[in-house]
C-alpha cells in the first residue's frame, strides 16, 4: 500500500522530513501537491507568488521524476482531495511538513482527523521554521511580543538539528491516479508581465541552493554593515524560503560550515532569519495579523482615504526618488530591498497616512516572497501598530535615507532611469536642482518625473499629530 507525501510550502527534496519518512516506510510513494489556496479561510496567493509557484512546481516535478515518480497535482479543499486520493490509490499512510499559518494549520488538523478516522496513518514534520511557535514561551507562559528576548531564547536553546538528507531511493507507485498539469492549475499570466521576474530569479530548489552558495561565498562577508545599502546584494533567499525550497536548517548548516561562522556578519544574518521566526511566532498566536492592528489602540488611528496618492505610491510616482525606485523595483522584479521596503512603507503610512493594510495587500500581490507572517509583521512594525514596533515618531525622511544608503544614487538610477543623468547631490531631491541642471539632465518635473506629491515637513507634522492621537493608548 502506498504512502502519500504532501507538498505545500515545502517544494524541495532536501531536508524534507515527510519525504524521508516515506523512504523509511519503504513502500511505494505518491508525491502530491494539493492547490488549496483560497479554500475555506486560506488566503489566496498573490499574482507574483503564483508565478513563482508555477515555476517551482515544474522544477519539483523534474526533480521527483528521477526519484519518486510523477507528482500528482490536484486542487480543492485539502481534506477532501487527500481522502479521494487515498480511496483511489489504496494508500494507508500520509505524511507532510507542518504549516504554521493558523488557517493552514487548522486545515491540516481537519485532514489529519478525517484520515485517522479512516484508519490512515499520518505523520507531520518540522522544517519551515527553526522553532515550534506553540512551544516557545516567556517565563509567564505567554508568547513573545519583543524580538530581543525571543531571539535570545531561540538562539540559546537546544542546538538546531542537522538538515535531513535526500532519500537515496524511493519506490515509485506503479498504479494509475489522475493528475492535472501545472499549466492548468496555475496558468501563467496573460498578457505576460513576468519577464522582469524571469530575469531576476531562478525559482526551485536548485535555484535556492545556488543562491545560498553564492551568498556564503561572496556576500556574507560584510553583510552586517552592507545589508542596508540597496545597491549591494543580500542573500536573496526570501522567496525560496517562502516557498519552502530551502529550510532555515539547511541555511544555518551552510553558515556554520563557513569559516566566517563566528563573525558578526554571520550573527547578524542569523538574527535576520530570526525575524522571520518572530513574525511566524506572532502570526501563530495572532491569526488575524494581516487584518487587525496588533496594538488595538491603532483601531482609532485617523487613516486617510486617498486613491490618487495610493496609486502614485503603487506605481512609483511619488516624486521621492528612493520610494519610487523601490516601488518600481518591486513591480519589475517582484522584490524590494529591505531598507527600501521600510522607507516605502513608512512613506505610505506616515507621509500619506494610508492604512498599512493597503500596503500589505499591494506587497502581497506583487512580492515573489509574499509571506503570511513576514509581510503583515513588518508592515505593522513600520506603521507602529505592531509588536516591538518602530516608535511612532520615527518618520523616515526619504531624502536623508536616500543620501545615507544610496549616496551616489546607483539604486535610484537603476530603477528611475529618467533621473539617471542628475548629479549625485540632486538625485534624491531633484526639485532642489536649478532649471539649468534639470534641463541638462533631461528632467522636466511634473512631466517626465513627478514633483513630490506631499511636502516632507508638512507631512511629517501631520503624521506626528495623527500618531499623537493614539499615543496615549499605546
Ligand atoms: P537577507 O537580508 O539576506 O535576510 C535573510 C533572510 O532573513 C531573508 O531571506 C528573510 O527570510 C529573513 N528576513 C530578513 N529580514 C527580515 C524581516 N525584516 N522580517 C522577516 N524576515 C526577514 N520578507 C519576506 O520574506 N516576505 C514578505 O512578505 C516580506 N514583507 C515585508 C514587508 C515590509 C514592509 C518590510 C519592511 C519587510 C518585509 N520583509 C518580507 C522582510 C525583508 O524585507 C525580506 O525578507 C528581505 O528583504 C529579503 O531579502 P533577502 O532574502 O536578501 O534578505
From TrEMBL:
Keywords: Chromophore, FAD, Flavoprotein, Lyase
EC number: 4.1.99.3
Site description Electron transfer via tryptophanyl radical, residues in chain: 303, 356, 379
A single BP term in Gene Ontology: photoreactive repair
Cofactor note: Binds 1 FAD per subunit.
GO molecular function: deoxyribodipyrimidine photo-lyase activity; DNA binding; FAD binding
Cofactors that this protein relies on: FAD; (6R)-5,10-methylene-5,6,7,8-tetrahydrofolate
Xref: Pfam families: DNA_photolyase, FAD_binding_7
EC primary class: lyase
Keyword Cell division carried by entry: no
Domain Photolyase/cryptochrome alpha/beta: 1-130
Binding of FAD, residues: 223, 234-238, 269, 369-371
Highest taxon, organism lineage: Bacteria
Reaction equations catalysed: cyclobutadipyrimidine (in DNA) = 2 pyrimidine residues (in DNA)
The family this protein is said to belong to: Belongs to the DNA photolyase family.
Protein name: Deoxyribodipyrimidine photo-lyase
Organism encoding this protein: Mesorhizobium denitrificans
Amino acid at each position: 500500500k502506498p504512502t502519500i507525501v504532501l507538498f505545500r510550502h515545502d517544494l524541495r527534496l532536501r531536508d524534507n522530513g515527510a519525504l524521508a519518512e516515506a523512504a523509511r516506510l519503504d513502500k511505494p510513494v505518491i508525491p502530491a501537491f494539493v492547490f488549496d489556496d483560497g479554500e475555506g479561510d486560506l488566503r489566496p496567493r498573490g499574482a507574483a507568488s503564483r508565478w513563482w509557484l508555477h515555476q517551482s512546481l515544474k522544477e519539483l516535478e523534474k526533480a521527483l521524476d528521477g526519484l519518486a515518480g510523477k507528482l500528482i497535482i490536484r486542487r480543492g479543499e485539502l481534506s477532501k482531495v487527500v481522502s479521494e486520493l487515498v480511496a483511489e490509490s489504496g494508500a494507508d499512510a500520509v505524511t507532510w511538513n507542518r504549516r504554521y499559518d493558523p488557517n493552514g494549520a487548522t486545515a491540516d488538523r481537519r485532514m489529519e482527523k478525517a484520515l485517522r478516522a479512516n484508519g490512515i496513518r499520518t505523520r507531520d514534520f518540522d522544517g519551515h521554521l527553526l522553532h515550534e511557535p506553540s512551544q516557545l514561551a516567556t517565563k509567564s507562559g505567554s508568547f513573545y511580543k519583543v524580538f530581543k528576548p525571543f531571539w535570545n531564547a531561540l538562539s540559546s536553546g537546544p542546538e538546531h538539528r542537522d538538515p535531513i538528507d535526500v532519500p537515496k531511493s524511493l519506490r515509485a507507485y506503479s498504479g494509475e491516479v489522475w493528475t492535472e498539469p501545472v499549466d492548468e492549475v496555475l496558468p501563467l499570466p496573460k498578457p505576460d508581465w513576468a519577464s522582469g521576474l524571469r530575469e531576476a530569479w531562478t525559482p526551485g530548489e536548485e535555484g535556492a541552493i545556488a543562491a545560498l552558495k553564492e551568498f556564503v561565498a561572496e556576500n556574507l562577508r560584510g553583510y552586517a554593515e552592507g545589508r542596508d545599502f540597496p545597491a549591494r546584494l543580500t542573500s536573496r533567499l526570501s522567496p525560496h524560503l517562502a516557498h519552502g525550497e530551502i529550510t532555515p536548517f539547511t541555511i544555518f548548516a551552510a553558515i556554520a560550515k563557513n569559516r566566517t561562522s563566528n563573525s558578526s556578519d554571520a550573527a547578524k544574518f542569523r538574527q535576520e532569519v530570526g525575524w522571520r521566526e518572530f513574525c511566524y511566532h506572532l502570526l501563530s498566536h495572532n491569526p488575524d495579523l494581516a487584518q487587525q492592528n496588533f496594538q488595538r489602540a491603532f483601531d482609532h488611528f485617523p487613516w486617510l482615504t486617498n486613491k490618487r496618492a495610493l496609486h502614485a505610491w503603487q506605481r512609483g510616482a511619488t516624486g521621492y526618488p528612493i520610494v519610487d525606485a523601490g516601488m518600481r523595483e518591486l513591480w519589475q522584479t517582484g522584490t524590494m530591498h529591505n531598507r527600501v521596503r521600510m522607507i516605502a512603507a513608512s512613506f505610505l503610512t506616515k507621509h500619506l497616512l494610508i492604512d498599512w493594510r493597503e500596503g500589505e495587500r499591494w506587497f502581497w500581490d506583487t512580492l515573489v516572497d509574499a509571506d503570511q507572517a513576514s509581510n503583515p509583521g513588518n508592515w505593522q512594525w513600520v506603521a507602529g501598530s505592531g509588536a516591538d514596533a518602530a516608535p511612532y515618531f520615527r518618520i523616515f525622511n526619504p531624502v536623508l535615507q536616500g543620501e545615507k544608503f544610496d549616496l551616489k544614487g546607483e539604486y535610484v538610477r537603476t530603477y528611475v532611469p529618467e533621473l539617471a543623468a542628475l548629479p549625485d547631490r540632486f538625485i534624491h531631491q531633484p526639485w532642489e536642482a536649478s532649471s539649468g541642471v534639470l534641463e541638462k539632465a533631461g528632467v522636466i518635473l511634473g512631466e517626465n518625473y513627478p514633483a513630490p506629491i506631499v511636502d516632507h515637513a508638512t507631512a511629517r507634522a501631520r503624521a506626528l499629530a495623527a500618531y499623537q492621537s493614539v499615543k496615549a493608548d499605546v
